[in-house]
Specification:
Number of strands: 5
Distance between the termini: 37 Å
Shape: globular
Largest sheet: 3 strands, antiparallel
Structural class: alpha+beta
Radius of gyration: 21 Å
Number of helices: 5
Number of domains: 1
Strand content: 15-25%
Strand order of the largest sheet: 1-2-3
Length: 153
């Protein structure tokens, strides 16, 4: 069922590469992965095309990043300063948007969410008791299901 009036918000994870400093200034920086969680509204097709035109091979004249972010993102988690959570306001959004590679990672994560493809946690991708034993390593297929049916006759 699809409810025409329902515009639920969804949490997505945005990850992008970066560097982390060593324990002291003389150590080399190490590759790191930055990650934030954003609660987003999945816009309708026309709005997605307006805010993310490059994804549709349309003339590339999108609104400013800040406008796009504020239209789509309604809440955030795991955005900190000095280890403390910061509020989602224009100043903090602008600082986040200046992070190298964040813009591309945000666009990719959002468009995946629009397409119904979001990151699946490791435990959620394993077998379930309702479809066989929880420790099954292989998901049932038509072949597997028919073989199972034949074996139980």
């Amino acid at each position: 069922m699809f409810d025409l009036l329902d515009r639920p918000l969804h949490w997505i994870t945005v990850k992008w590469p970066g560097l982390a400093q060593g324990e002291n200034e003389s150590e080399l920086s190490q590759p790191a992965e930055h990650k934030v969680e954003l609660r987003v509204e999945l816009l309708d097709r026309e709005e997605v095309q307006r805010y993310f035109p490059a994804a549709f091979d349309l003339p590339d004249d999108p609104p400013a990043e800040l406008e796009t972010f504020k239209r789509v993102v309604k809440e955030w988690r795991k955005v900190v300063s000095g280890g403390r959570a910061v509020p989602m306001n224009d100043e903090n959004i602008a600082i986040l948007l200046k992070a190298p590679m964040l813009g591309a990672a945000f666009t990719e994560a959002y468009l995946k969410a629009i397409g119904g493809r979001v990151e699946v946690r490791e435990k959620n991708s394993q077998g379930s008791p309702s479809n066989g034993r929880a420790d099954d390593q292989q998901a049932p297929t038509r072949t597997n299901s028919s073989e199972t049916a034949d074996a139980s006759d």
